[in-house]
Amino acid sequence: MKNIIFIISLLFSMTLAFAQEINVPVVINKTFETQINAFKDCENIVWSKNENNYVATYDKKSIRNITSFSMEGRIVENLEKTDLETLSENVLNYIDENYPKAKVMQCFSQSSETAPNRSVVEIKLKGISYQLFFRPDGTFHYEVELK
Q1: Per-position pLDDT tens, the chain of length 147
Q2: Cα(52)–Cα(62) distance, rounded to whole angstroms?
Q3: Residue 23: phi, psi to the nearest 5?
Q4: d(CA 46, CA 14)
């Protein structure tokens, strides 16, 4: 009985810890509401914060999005989850030719201040995950090993 009470109290305290709200500055919230959620079609919005940015993860029209905002409220980057089939032929051919044994984990369309309309593909090969970045024309740009 003591073990059950301990487990319940532990789960309750963990739930409270994860449910704490991020205090999003007004300027960032205003950008989100006017530029991202203008039609009130975003659901499951979860905010987080890293060293330099506030990050909103949300579903828009049932599609997972991740948007990073600068401390001043500018949109720094947006990632929108896409299907493998929506990637350009150049991207698909590159993956088939250079990573034939890799498993595609997820795909994103990325737009940022420095690289608009780029495809990002996460693959897993021999237990290691990589993100592959492609230019707007579908040519390979670079890869990053995920830790």
Answers
A1: 333 333 333 333 333 333 346 889 999 999 999 988 877 899 999 999 988 899 999 999 889 999 999 999 999 999 999 999 999 999 999 999 999 999 999 999 999 888 888 999 999 999 999 999 999 999 999 999 998
A2: 28
A3: -85, 95
A4: 17
Given a contact cutoff of 8 angstroms between Cβ atoms, the answer to whether 134 and 140 are in contact is yes
Beta bridge partners of 125: 128
Strand-pair category, 128-134 with 42-49: unpaired
List the end-to-end C-alpha distance of the chain, in Å, as a whole number.
Answer: 41
Composition of the chain by helix, strand, coil, percent to 5: 30, 45, 30
